[in-house]
């Protein structure tokens, strides 16, 4: 094509609208420039348009090499259903995205899909959601059914995958069947009058209409409401699940008087229902309390020993006092001027109000028991009991300590015995029951190791043991406790040996091991000693370490 003919062809195509290029200067303005522009401008425009006429079709046309790189896709096993579903129930759609693999199909990896829904003639197909499939291309999701229509899944083009669209699945939505009536049978909230802080317990069973009678439901959700007397609107206290037969039992601490109600919310095929309110009156504590026979002691205790506190909670009964039932108490301790009163623990008394507990003594101070207000019981506080804690002052030792035997076969017991004693003037006296630690130090294989901790008898004596495994040294330590100082016994060495059996097999056709040299002939039941004349000519079948072992096994000694 000559430049002249190119010029007129391009000009004609522009004028006729057949040549459309995405540049803002094209159209009417280009026509004006070609008619009235300078000669050099017209020449430049003609050359530029000729180049664009060649390049643009190449740019906008899809290449066969690119198109061939995309793998075809499909949505296999696509299901949306059920085909007929109650309004408000879920429509579930499932399937697997696959890509062409030769002449067959293979699951893709995780890909993006679009879910569309087309109501029956009501509106065009609408995008419901976009989601990502699992690692094998599979998907499963759902949405509440509102109107009938068709569901479709689109695989948009992505990566090396070409786009595709599943077939449509029609789902008909129908009005659900009337809900089944419910009620709360045998609803109780009580007791009708309860002490502040005590539990209000509510029980009942959810039932459903069954013909002309009622049957228990399975496990359902219920809401518990409480309405204080005119002080606040009905308030949701908690939501809970009933048991598998619809029954429930729960409670909450009583704080103020009011009305308790159970609501069964609409769920599944069950309609909502509400119980009549149950009124519970909460009364403040009216009965005075005291801690009778309170003791904390001993008055002077060695550091680390237990301080034991005991007593009985009683309530006013006319002009006398009676034991309460099981109540909660708080134990407080006030170190001597070093800290304010501190809560040590909270505990429950026994069924008759009695209690006994303890704690290791660390510093001197005062112990107090508080009965907090609970139920119909008012609060009370005991007088403080002072306990003096003293540091260890008496030296100790391990008297008559033994560990043995000195040589013991592996697996046999090493037995350690002794008596813990305390300094008494210029002599020593047995302690009472104390704690001791038993240590063992293997021969160079490990540092001193705690084997066990045990209590001595009432006179300070002890006797215990452990299987022997390796040789080493045994030591007893008396840790500091009460008024007793710490001490450590001298180490006792125990050698552990490996014992050979008395009967064994030959080491070869003619010989027994050196530690079991006696040859035994099983067929004759005769044994031969090394110095006997037939010994060297005897092929042993059993070997013995001693004659006693051979005799015990039923053998007799050779006569020569």
Pick out its properties:
560 residues, mainly beta, six-stranded mixed beta sheet, 49% strand, extended, disordered N terminus
Folded structure, characterized:
By secondary structure, this protein is mainly β. The chain is 10% helix and 49% strand. The protein has five helices and 45 strands. Strands 2, 5, 6, 8, 9 and 10 form a six-stranded mixed β-sheet that branches. Strands 12, 15, 16, 18, 19 and 20 form a six-stranded mixed β-sheet that branches. Strands 22, 25, 26, 28, 29 and 30 form a six-stranded mixed β-sheet that branches. The chain is extended. The N terminus is likely disordered.
Profile the largest sheet: 6 strands, mixed
Rounded mean pLDDT is 86
Number of strands: 45
Task: Name the shape in a single word.
Answer: extended
Helix content: under 10%
Distance between the termini: 134 Å
The low-pLDDT segments are 1-11, 13-25, 63-67
Based on CA atoms alone, the radius of gyration comes out at 49 Å
Work out the strand percent: over 45%
Return the structural class.
mainly beta
The helix count comes to: 5
Give a brief rundown of this model.
With 560 residues, this protein is mostly beta strands.
């Amino acid at each position: 094509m000559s430049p002249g003919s190119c010029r007129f062809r391009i000009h004609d195509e522009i004028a006729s609208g057949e040549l459309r290029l995405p540049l803002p200067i094209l159209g009417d303005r280009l026509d004006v420039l070609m008619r009235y522009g300078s000669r050099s401008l017209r020449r430049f425009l003609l050359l530029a348009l000729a180049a664009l006429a060649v390049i643009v079709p190449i740019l906008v046309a899809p290449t066969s090499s690119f198109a061939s790189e995309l793998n075809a896709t499909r949505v296999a096993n696509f299901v949306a259903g059920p085909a007929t579903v109650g309004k408000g129930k879920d429509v579930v759609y499932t399937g697997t995205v696959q890509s062409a693999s030769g002449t067959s199909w293979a699951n893709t990896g995780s890909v993006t899909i679009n879910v569309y829904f087309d109501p029956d003639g009501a509106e065009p197909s609408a995008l419901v959601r976009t989601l990502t499939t699992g690692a094998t291309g599979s998907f499963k999701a759902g949405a509440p059914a509102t109107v009938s229509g068709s569901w479709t899944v689109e695989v948009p083009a992505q990566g090396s995958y070409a786009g595709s669209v599943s077939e449509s699945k029609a789902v008909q939505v129908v009005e659900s069947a009337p809900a089944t009536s419910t009620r709360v049978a045998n609803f109780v909230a009580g007791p009708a009058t309860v002490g502040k802080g005590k539990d209000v317990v509510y029980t009942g069973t959810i039932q459903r209409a069954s013909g002309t009678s009622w049957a228990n439901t399975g496990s359902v959700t219920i809401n518990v409401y409480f309405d204080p007397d005119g002080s606040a609107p009905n308030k949701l206290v908690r939501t809970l699940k009933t048991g598998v037969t619809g029954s429930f039992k729960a409670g909450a601490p009583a704080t103020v008087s009011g009305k308790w109600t159970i609501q069964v919310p609409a769920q599944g095929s069950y309609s909502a229902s509400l119980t009549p309110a149950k009124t519970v009156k909460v009364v403040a504590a009216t009965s005075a309390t005291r801690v009778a026979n309170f003791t904390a002691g001993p008055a002077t205790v060695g550091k680390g020993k237990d301080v034991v506190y005991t007593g009985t909670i009683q309530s006013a009964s006319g002009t006398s006092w009676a034991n309460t039932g099981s109540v909660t108490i708080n134990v407080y301790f006030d170190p001597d001027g070093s800290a304010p009163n501190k809560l040590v623990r909270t505990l429950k008394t026994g069924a008759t109000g009695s209690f006994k507990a303890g704690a290791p003594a660390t510093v001197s101070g005062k112990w107090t028991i508080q009965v907090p207000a609970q139920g119909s019981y008012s609060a009370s506080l005991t007088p403080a009991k002072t306990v003096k804690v003293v540091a260890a002052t008496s030296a100790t030792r391990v008297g008559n300590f033994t560990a043995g035997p000195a040589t013991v076969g592996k697996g046999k017991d090493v037995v350690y015995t002794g008596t813990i004693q305390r300094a008494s003037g210029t002599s020593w006296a047995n302690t009472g029951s104390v704690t001791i630690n038993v240590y063992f130090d293997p021969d160079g294989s490990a540092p001193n190791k705690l084997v066990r901790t045990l209590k001595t008898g009432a006179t300070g004596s002890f006797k215990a043991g452990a299987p022997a495994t390796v040789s080493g040294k045994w030591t007893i330590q008396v840790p500091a406790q009460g008024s007793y100082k710490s001490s450590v016994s001298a180490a006792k060495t125990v050698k552990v040996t490996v014992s050979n059996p008395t009967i064994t097999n030959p080491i070869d056709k003619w010989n027994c091991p050196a530690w079991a040299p006696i040859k035994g002939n099983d067929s004759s039941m005769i044994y031969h000693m090394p110095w006997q004349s037939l010994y060297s000519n005897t092929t042993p079948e059993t070997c013995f370490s001693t004659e006693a072992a051979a005799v015990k096994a039923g053998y007799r000694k050779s006569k020569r």
